[in-house]
Amino acid sequence: MKLLRYGPVGQEKPGLLDDAGQVRDLSGIITDVAGDALHPDMIAKLQGLNPADLPLVAGTPQDDLRLGACVGNVGKMVCIGLNYADHAAEAGLDVPKEPVVFNKFTSAIVGPNDDVVLPRGSKKTDWEVELAIVIGKGGTYIDEANAMDHVAGFCIVNDVSEREYQLERSGTWDKGKGCDTFGPTGPWLVTPDEGGDFDDLGMWLDIDGKRYQNGSTATMVFKVPHLVAYCSEFMSLQPGDIISTGTPPGVGMGQKPQVYLADGQVMTLGIDKLGVQRQTVRASK
Fold it and tell me: pTM higher than 0.90 for the full model?
């Protein structure tokens, strides 16, 4: 099942994508794709629906029908750094002995095709296609063996990153990761039964049609169940929380010479079975 949120910014409604690629309205069943609507019991209820019985929404998703972030009211977006062995090598850094955890401010979250706005004075804004975990059942000190029971599904996150802010302006990585529009999320939340083998999903990212990232979740150092269990040691995980799990090589910072985003460029990115995003880069006003 593919859950989504559609409509104008701030007025998104819950929906699902049917087998014909059309959006079906879920407003009569749930108020949003958020919180308790992501609990396993509700997910099971939604999976039992016949999409043909739900109202059909006019328009083509990601064309003339805007999609918002596929999860609403996100409590926190936790990110994992250097979690791909080939990306760590690209950065000239050792593979971490345990997950590197940082935060992306929830005000960064936007729809999968919304514009990405460069911060004022930014010269080093970069891209990162990532597999993200959406929590369905909360908990603390989650056992790794049971971690998948807490996962509502998966989606794509573009972990847009301003490298100067992240690495050259003191403090933690957060200030380079959490700028407004730096977290395109979606297009849809895909439940684990439909996502298939999340340990071997192809992932890619193009800038103006040129392929920069071309990897696979197979090179993740710390896998999904471990990340869920690990993060729950340091914080309570709650329904609708997102864990973005790191990126493969091919980021702008790793190019020789380095390449960064500029006004008017277009990022297109995707992960097998999880859909495609497309963002236009805009300069700050």
Answer: yes
Closest CA to 162 of 281, 9, 77: 281
The torsion of the CA quartet 163, 178, 2, 58, rounded to 10 degrees, works out to -110
Contact 82, 92 (CB under 8 A): no
27-34 contacts at long range (C-beta below 8 A, 24 or more positions apart): 28/54, 28/55, 29/54, 32/5, 32/72, 32/73, 33/3, 33/4, 33/5, 33/70, 33/71, 33/72, 33/189, 34/71, 34/72, 34/73, 34/74, 34/239, 34/240
Evaluate whether 14 touches 33 at the Cβ level (below 8 Å).
yes
The beta strands (E) that lie in 89-240 are given as 100-104, 109-110, 116-117, 125-126, 129-135, 151-158, 161-162, 183-184, 189-190, 202-207, 210-216
pLDDT digits (tens, 9 = 90+) for 74-106: 999 999 998 998 777 777 777 889 999 999 999
3-state secondary structure of 186: coil
Separation CA 262–CA 256 (nearest Å): 17
Reading phi first (left if > 0) and then psi (alpha if -120 to 50, else beta), residue 161 is in beta
Residue 139: CA atoms inside 13 Å, Cβ hemisphere, count? 17
pLDDT single digits (tens) 106-143: 999 999 999 999 999 999 999 999 999 999 999 999 99
